Amino acid sequence: MSTTPHDPAAGSEHGDQHLGTDEELVTSDTMPEEFLPDGGVIETVAVDVADLHPELADAEQVAELVAPDRTIRAKVGEPLLQMQQVTMKFGGLTALDDVTFDIRRGEILGLIGPNGAGKTTCFNTMTGVYRPTTGQVVFDGRPLGRTKRNEITRLGIARTFQNIRLFSDMTALENVVVGTDARHRTSVPGAIFRSRRHRAEERDALDRGMALLEFVGIGRRATQQARNLPYGDQRRLEIARALATEPKLLCLDEPAAGFNPAEKEDLKGLIRKIRDDGYTVLLIEHDMRLVMGVTDRVVVLEFGRKIAEGLPAEVSADPAVIAAYLGVPDDATA
Amino acid sequence: MSTETTSTVAHLGIGDRFRLWWDALARPTQWAVGVPFIVLIALLPIIKPPVLTTVGTDFAGVLAQFGMYALLAIGLNVVVGQAGLLDLGYVGFYAIGAYTVGLLTSPDSPWNQTDSWLSQKWAWLFALPIAIAITAISGLILGSPTLRLRGDYLAIVTLGFGEIVRLLADNLTTITGGGRGLSRIAYPIVGVSESRPTGYFSAGNNQAPITSGVAWFWLSIVLIIVVLLVVGNLQRSRVGRAWVAIREDEDAAEIMGVPTFKFKLWAFLIGASIGGLSGALYAGQVQFVIPTTFNIINSTLFLVAVVLGGQGNKLGVILGAFVIVYLPNFFLGRTELFGIPINGNEIANYKYLFFGLALIVLLIFRPQGLFPARQKLLAYGREVYVAARRAALALTRPTSDETTGGSR
Ligand SMILES: Nc1ncnc2c1ncn2[C@@H]1O[C@H](COP(=O)(O)OP(=O)(O)OP(=O)(O)O)[C@@H](O)[C@H]1O
Ligand SMILES: [Mg+2]
């Protein structure tokens, strides 16, 4: 309903919920021959990735394929992204109030705070969904200013959404390939005449796409429509799609929302694996155990203000944080 | 955001079923089935099958019109079905294509060029690429400011565009001839002979078997195949994926690195060019253009073809175009059907009512269209599906722990 190119709802959490459930998949346990997968029919069958590409069976090779291959100006440990006195106002409401912190290359930074503290807004100012009212975001030495959202992605910031926003009509693989397309250059003439570059990029998209799906653990779901994936796999697919843009910085907005403890444990492993593969991760999460277990440093927001920053152990001992956050029963994850 | 919620796992649309069957065939078999099928379609106006052949109007002429509408439906489908941009003024591009040919080649037009650099014989053929280029440019001109709007706003602005084009044609009397239109428009002069002094494509050619309608029908079949190849290549590329991503969730697409504005503009430009191509064909076939052909109701009719056929499915929208062109003509002039007396003319007169009702019923019970089919978006996706098929065959009957997400 918006007339501006920057829909204020873009990063908000009021979209529709995920569409698929496990039950839906079970209903199709009778599968006559004619339902065999092809050409994007709503398949329920699993792809054997090793059959497709022998090297996809080897986790190390997969990680190799997925690892980013780009020059980053910041050295490991140096600030990759800097929030510099960022203030974000919506009318009378100040969602971010003079927030300053750095994300260092190679770390997993946790961003925590009670509901409505401004965490998602923080993401939105980094990814260009909102422009800060005052202050600026500097990414890898370059102020983002009025850079377009798709260009920011190509500069190297990728994100997932608090409410899942997949392209629900596309298959899992196609969703990821849209991510890889961010690094591709084929446009209309190249596609019409099937140029050499187009063919090379399509190959690359398929190979990297399958590797990414396998990396996040849903390779066998490649041919299923995103809307039909189980909830947890949809969250993983969002991560794979974001990684496909070859980001320097990956921002995860409550990736564990709605997960059971076992799934959270898996996710912890995945986030570590992503970092070990050479990515820098910014993690918004409500589950304190997950945050404390996986992050290197933590930034705490409350009412749009940064109230603490430091190692997870320091932060969880900080009286201000305990008062603001840890003391409050955590209903969001209940 | 997608409003479709009816999809279930085991439910397959006709389009999907058809493609399953089609994809299962080997390449040579596909040729062996496809080519004779197209030839059969092409021969319809010569075979003139009983019942199917229209009685009130020239059957070949109806099929030629279907060919042009099929092109329109394919072009509009790029914009509406693939990129999800509701364009209610698509008829404007059809008009610009037709009027460009008319203005360049009609003796009534002050801009007639057939005496100077356009040779009489090749005038239509030379005017064709110009018509396509001018329509493409008009698509850019309309798109650059309006594609920043979304949804309903875009629909309203494009609706206005369609009307503006028609009103210009109606009111710029000194150039377009106003309501009198432009007559004696050039057409390709091919196959001049004793019995056909003006060639196959002349509107005056009613020498069976290859009448003017048949010639234009065949030409449009060739163009449809070319356009389908182009659009198919686009669909299975970065461009097609960008369009679907924009249709599904424009903001998410932008944040995933899709230059949404650029690709929306491309969708408009490609849709417009195809509309212009169809308009140029139309101008050559009837050799006469008047503004009333390009009114809003026709624009809506094109949209009906797309919605009826199944948005996004390029073969489906061709069938949609067939339905809207053929059905009214089928009834026209018919006094009995299978021995039952009917008043065909009355039925044909109420075509808008019937299409309107059909559309409402369709949107309630089958919002995905008559022939829904999901588009393939990967150039080399086939091998993934082949792997999936092998996995499926290995399992023969998947157990429930497989489908609920057990380990592989
Ligand atoms: N587009 C907007 N217009 C107006 N107010 C907004 C907008 N986006 C966010 N806000 C407000 O800004 C504040 C911070 O919201 P934000 O979504 O960043 O919180 P959060 O920390 O992500 O919370 P949660 O844990 O619930 O996700 C809230 O009060 C919210 O209502
Ligand atoms: Mg949030």
Task: From the alpha carbons, calculate the radius of gyration of chain B and give it in angstroms.
Answer: 23 Å
- CATH fold type of chain B: ABC transporter involved in vitamin B12 uptake, BtuC
Sheet with most strands: strand arrangement of chain A: 6-7-8-3-9-10
| End-to-end C-alpha gap of chain B | 33 Å
Low-confidence stretches of chain A: 1-43, 329-334
Poorly predicted regions of chain B: 1-10, 396-408
Please tell me what the overall shape of chain B is.
Answer: globular
CATH architecture of the largest domain in chain A: 3-Layer(aba) Sandwich
Overall domain count of chain A:
2
Mean pLDDT of chain A: 83
What is the tally of beta strands of chain A?
10
CATH T-level topology of the largest domain in chain A: Rossmann fold
* Overall CATH class of the largest domain in chain A: Alpha Beta
CATH architectural designation of chain B: Orthogonal Bundle
CATH superfamily of the largest domain in chain A: P-loop containing nucleotide triphosphate hydrolases
Distance between the termini of chain A: 34 Å
Strand order of the largest sheet of chain B: 1-2
Biggest sheet overview of chain A:
6 strands, mixed
Could you say which structural class the secondary elements and strand pairing of chain B correspond to? mainly alpha
Can you describe this structure?
- The complex is a heterodimer of chains A (334) and B (408).
- Chain A is an alpha/beta fold and 334 residues long.
- Chain A folds into 2 domains: 39-67 and 166-246, no CATH class; 69-156 and 247-334, Rossmann fold (3-Layer(aba) Sandwich).
- Chain A is built from 13 helices and 10 strands.
- In chain A, strands 6-7-8-3-9-10 form a 6-stranded mixed β-sheet, with helices on both faces. Chain A has a 4-stranded antiparallel β-sheet with strand order 2-1-4-5, covered by helices on one side.
- Chain A is globular.
- Residues 1-43 and 329-334 of chain A have low confidence and may be disordered.
- Chain B is mainly alpha-helical and 408 residues long.
- Chain B contains 17 helices and 4 strands.
- Chain B has a two-stranded antiparallel sheet.
- In chain B, helix 3 (59-82) packs across helix 12 (296-309), helix 5 (123-146) packs antiparallel against helix 11 (260-286) and helix 12 (296-309) packs across helix 13.
- Chains A and B meet through helix 1, helix 2, helix 5, helix 6 and helix 7 of A and helix 1, helix 6, helix 8, helix 9 and helix 10 of B.
- Bound molecules: adenosine-5'-triphosphate and magnesium ion.
- Residues 13, 119-120, 162 of chain A line the site of magnesium ion.
